[in-house]
Write a structure and sequence with these properties.
Elements (H helix, E strand, L loop, with lengths): L1 H6 L3 E6 L5 H11 L2 H4 L2 E9 L7 H11 L3 E6 L27 E6 L4 E2 L5 H4 L4 E6 L2 H6 L2 E4 L1 E2 L2 H11 L1 H10 L3 E5 L1 H6 L2 E3 L10 E3 L6 E18 L7 E13 L7 E3 L4 E2 L1 E4 L2 E4 L8 H8 L13 H19 L2 H8 L2
Parallel strand pairs: 1-2, 2-3, 4-6, 4-7, 7-9, 9-17, 10-12
Antiparallel strand pairs: 5-8, 10-11, 12-13, 12-14, 14-15, 16-17
Amino acid sequence: LRMARHAGAATYLIADIDRGGVFGSVFGTLALLEPEEKACIKGIIINKFRGDARLFEDGRQQLAALTGVPVVGVLPYFRDIFIEEEDSVALARKQRGLAPAGRVQVAVVLLGRMSNFTDFDALGHDPRVHLFYTHDAAELAAADIILLPGSKNTIDDLIALKNSGLAAAIIQAHRAGKTVIGICGGYQMLGHSVEDPAGVESRVAATAGLGLLPVRTVLQGEKTTQQRRFAFRAAPAPDCQGYEIHMGHTTPDGAAQPVATLADGTADGYYASPTCWGTYLHGILDNALVIEQLLAPFTTQQPAAPFDFAAFKNSQFDRLADLIRANVDMPQIYAALQP
């Protein structure tokens, strides 16, 4: 609440009733706040209520009387609105293991310090694909496509891959003709080496990469954070969207062979072949053009229409907004936002 107190921002305490003990958690939280912090709290919202919210009307009144703060809404528990997860705790609920034959088997390597796992949500919604997360060498060998995700500590995760035998399994899968793609930290791992001379992420100054791409990475203190429009491969226009968020600078050993050309003309990534490439562009797999090229060698099925993942996400946010408007006292919130 330090930021809210500094800004004088209206703040709402959201309580998860599905976990139980909501009265104790709300009362205890408010009781521990400093007076200046509690002054920022303009209301309480009860989240994940199962059943008819009218049954909680007495509870709302009791909680308001107990805390001196109004309960401005009770949000129902739902599972039919897709909102991207923000916390890697959600990885525990992700699909594990291979599926029966008939779909393209896409394995995401389960790194210990994995980041940006939402990069693969669009593939997870494709009915032609079985997307699963694994740290099992045999499952990697059986997959059609292996995706190396981003990492909060590229060198340490890369060392862990080597020690576990997964690095060797990825290399062997590539030699067997499987497609291997790296995104951000995964892209860095696919190169010849990753160096961290300033100790930006790791105490280890340098380590050898998997050697599948002829590139080398040096981690640097300045972080690149950019929204990007780009043309994938030989596409004539920058019609795809993604974003960069990384600490490293990656250079090829020879001539550049970019995966994408950014709208400003900058090259991104390295495209060794259709079965091995890497990129810094998170969200690259949200683009239908990229997904179709990725899946083409493995399936002849074509979607009735290209899946616009961005439009799908926007529609889900609209559904969430409608749910909130129907169950929260929005006029009270708008009034609290007035200076």
